[in-house]
Amino acid sequence: MPNREQLRGHWNEVKGRLKEHWAQLTEDDLRRAEGSADRLVGVVQQKTGATRSEVERFLDSLFSNGVRDQAAETVQQYSDAAQKMAAEASQFAKEQAQRFAAQSGDYSAKVAERVRTRPGETLAIAFGLGIAAGAFLFLGRKK
């Protein structure tokens, strides 16, 4: 049986579901019972002829299904948000990879063009770097 807080928190939904199930209930009937589960059961019994246990079972199922539905909806919302974030992260990574590939491709093309057009200069630079690296390693071992 729902408590007072549950009824207040979901009153519009409860009213709608009660009216769907028992069409003879009016707004005035439900207004008389607002806030009290016992009064609600009494009003529904009086107006519809349903048994107390039948009304209580209906309310219990309404709240147990409602809680499950809310939990499922919350999980679905988190799942949707996670999927959206994953898609955005994937798109960002793809764009960054494409940008990096374009930049490195441009650099590689520039280096290849430089080697082709100035082979002597490129060889001299490579030789100088080799000498510097060797000296650095040799001097590093001496200490």
From TrEMBL:
Keyword vocabulary terms for this entry: Membrane, Transmembrane, Transmembrane helix
UniProt-listed Pfam families: CsbD
Keyword flag Endoplasmic reticulum: no
Source domain of life: Bacteria
Nucleotidyltransferase keyword on record: no
Record-annotated CsbD-like domain positions: 6-56
Ranges annotated as spanning the membrane: 123-140
Similarity field: Belongs to the UPF0337 (CsbD) family.
Protein name from the UniProt record: CsbD family protein
Species this chain originates from: Novipirellula rosea
